[in-house]
Design goal:
Elements lengths: L1 H11 L6 H7 L11 H22 L5 H12 L1 H10 L18 H19 L1 H11 L1 H9 L6 H11 L6 E10 L2 E10 L4 E7 L2 H17 L1
Antiparallel strand pairs: 1-2, 2-3
Helix pairs in contact: 2-6, 3-4, 3-6, 3-7, 4-10, 5-6, 6-7, 9-10
Length: about 220
């Protein structure tokens, strides 16, 4: 197994000091313990931080809403699954529910995040950042060259319309903070599905966009 996993280390450009962490990252809960769910939680956090900082540096003139949309496009499940496929990650996974499970987008995406979490624990943030940016290289370049994305509210409405559902409803939950620096909390609701997500922002528009993005991520996840 160590020799086999060494091939994956070469693909991501990182060699583990503790091979047990890599083995855990590649173990689905259906196979046994220790499995990769806790590492997935950690990897999701480091992935979000690295991608956010990369976008912040690459797009110095873009507003927060546009940066958020590009981050969502990069870290959605389908994008992570594509990166996992490009690494041949399924070759290294251990699952206990059949070989076909290794190719499920959800399993691939979660395992990739677990891999990032394992690198963070093994080598620290800077090493994890290198692995994330290395494996995301082409995707980051593609997003950098892309035209402005449709905003989250528009994409959510299109998504619902394609499913024959009515537009979402937005409601004000609270307004806090000082008059010149408000914090507005908005709820986005899709009543036929019984779904609702909230978000806060410095304006009603930004809060609505964030709430729509959160709900869209839930629907697309």
């Amino acid at each position: 197994m160590a020799a086999r996993n060494a091939a994956l280390e070469r693909r991501i450009g990182y060699r583990f000091r503790d091979p047990a962490l890599l083995a855990q990252a590649l173990t689905h809960r259906s196979f046994g313990s220790p499995h990769n769910e806790r590492l997935e939680f950690l990897g999701d956090a480091v992935l979000g931080c690295v991608i956010a900082s990369e976008l912040y540096v690459r797009f110095a003139s873009l507003p927060e809403g546009e940066l958020h949309e590009r981050r969502i496009a990069l870290v959605r499940q389908s994008a992570l699954a594509d990166i996992a496929k490009s690494l041949g990650l399924s070759e290294f996974l251990q699952v206990g529910v059949g070989e076909e499970a290794k190719r499920l987008p959800s399993v691939l995406a979660d395992s990739l995040e677990a891999l990032y979490g394992a690198v963070l624990l093994d080598g620290g943030y800077e090493e994890a950042k290198k692995v994330v940016t290395r494996t995301f290289g082409e995707e980051l370049d593609r997003i950098a060259a892309a035209k402005p994305l449709k905003n989250a509210k528009s994409r959510l409405q299109e998504h619902l319309h394609a499913r024959g559902l009515p537009p979402p409803k937005y409601g004000l939950l609270s307004t806090k903070g000082r008059p010149h620096q408000p914090v507005i909390e908005i709820e986005c609701v899709v009543e036929p599905l019984g779904l609702r997500m909230s978000a806060s922002g410095g304006s009603r528009q930004s809060a609505e966009q964030q709430a729509a993005a959160n709900l869209l991520k839930l629907l697309e996840g």
